[in-house]
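ok so I'm stuck.
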Amino acid sequence: MAPPYFLLLLLLPLLTTVVPSTRAASQTSPLASLPGCRNKCGNITVPYPFGFEPNCFREDSSQDFSLVCNESYNPPRLFISGDDQEITDISPKGQLHILVTANRKCYNSSGGYISGTSATTYISYGTAHPFVLSVSNNFFAVGCPNRGYFVDGDGYYVSGCVSACRPTQYPLGSTNGSCTGVGCCQSSIPNGLIFYEASLQNLLESSSQDIGDPVKYGNPTNCSYVFLADSNWFQFDNSYLTRTNDFKVQVGMDWAIRNAGNCSYARRNLTDYACRSLNHDCYNSDNGAGYLCNCSKGYQGNPYITGGCQDINECDELKSKEYPCYGDCINTIGSYTCTCPRGTEGNATKDVCRKKDHFTLALKIVIGASVGVFFVASASFCLYLGMQKRRLIRTRQHFFEQNGGVLLRQQMSSFETTTFRIYTKEELEKATNKFSEERVLGRGGHGIVYKGILEDGTVAAIKRSKLMEEQETKEFAKEMLILAQINHKNVVKLLGCCLEVEVPMLVYEYISNGTLYHYIHQNNFNAPIPLDERLRIAAESAGALAYMHSSASPPILHGDVKTANILLDENFVAKVSDFGASKLAPNDEAEIATLVQGTCGYLDPEYLLTCQLTDKSDVYSFAVIILELLTRKKALYFEGPEEDRSLASTFCVAKKEGRFIEILDGQVRDEIKLEVLEEIGDLVMHCLNMNREERPTMRDVADTLEKARRFQKQSPNEENHVEETESLLGDSVDIYTRDSSMSYSFGQQAIFDMISGRRRF
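replied:
not stuck anymore, here's the structure
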């Protein structure tokens, strides 16, 4: 029998047959800037078309690609030309980052302003620069209690959030890395933004009520901040709540060649076409108009420079990991070949080259061992897949039980006529083409809505919600069953839900004609909207909310009433939707303590200050909808003077001064009867009362609107035969007094300013 080391002697010839790869000498690195130009400013490489020396950047009459390298610093720092914002990095792929000082305001314990940044934080480049704000940024507000918001200059886009303090009897809500509304809040930004201005308002400073009780409202922070920052860069931690100094944040920017809308248009003008190298690819910018250039496969370098894309020498030793070759490597233009040397065989790019006709015992042993290892590995992999599948099943079952699926299924069995269904995750993925971006109908504060086609052909709106609190998850199944029983022609029907995911998904009926907000504000503004149609939509919406408040058991409080949450079907019938902020009212009390949710311009002042959501909170918000229908103005609008940017406060001032008719839409002003105008004006005035106890119920609002609509449609002859003409509302007039001169103090005006988004700082 051969000694053990004999096997090593048999393996030795096999090991020595490996042919080393033939690699060429290293080639020069590709150009990053124009010949004779510096491309380094301190630690930052500056690729062309950018530059900081004369004749070293792209000459473009429509956009400025010049940068400034300030060498008074050590090391030198790079800045955007004509601006004081420092660049921390820049990529030829179309991204860069800048440093911007966060907007800061500091207050004393009673909310009095002490100090802050010297100017409001803003970024503005316009069309003279190739930059737009990256969607990787989020808008953040840090500190409490405060409200931060930003606008894009012309007021076409406005967003913001409210950061609240957790009452002291509860543990601290925000933890390191968490920015969900307690001590820190955030919101996203849209594509194509070239300007933003951030503003900050401390709620203690604006409120006329005493909200300084730490047991009830929490301890406010000394300083608050608002800023735009790259969401991958900013990580909130509790140390921000004790800061009192300025600090800079990193903001992401996207750049492109923007003198043409896309590659197709750019190629038509070859003299100004930015992609100068022969071997390049052009692709359209995914953030705003414009295009970018890239070297083709097999080439590297700077495509914006003539001859800048050079052939990659795949046979270079430095490229061996990226382009493996275990045989003879021969570089070609744009590619390479790799073959085994003469007298050997094998796959030179994936395996070693072996001598032919040497199928020895050692090779057989190696092959046998390899096959054995392969089978063991295959068996282990199959076992692993089985374990992963069982783990996935257990995870889905855990989510199903955690979200109340067992209870919901049991309760559904007692409702034989219900059309509510529990869907699987696979069914909804198939219905939405795996939640494709092309199927997105809208994005909101509570999640993303997709258009889906179910297996039976039904077109549905599928809502993928954001994270819920643990208490909301426990009550989810109960609330879903109650919502499923709602059968009202003016409420969007809930068809089902999916519970085997961490945050349940909801399936609603699909409404085809968009939102009331779009119908009023974003369609052709000159297109007429008959007064009767406006009153009908208002009456239908009020009736649906009244049904939720008084006929559902238990009552349902919507919590986010606004024109964007009222849909219109193909016949323009109103459908109340989006119950992401809704709550079930307890049977034994009329108020619910909750973190404030909602939309600026519609928020009930008492709800914001007390965190108590009631049915009268929906009444306040609905009054703003009535004003939007009658004026065709947005709840917050920025085209007028600063003091008139809140629709609710503008109405209250105009009503008290007897000029309500002046703010109406011209078409409404021509059509509306004086009696109807007076009654609706008084109704809205009482709905906006600062004391919620003095507001009418939603049923009273619905009845008043319906009677106003009928009176408006009456002809003059019919009016003379109506005995109740003296009182349009008839027996419903008792919901409020005829004295509409509500107490409207300067303190209440400040609360209006706080809710509506008006700046007072």
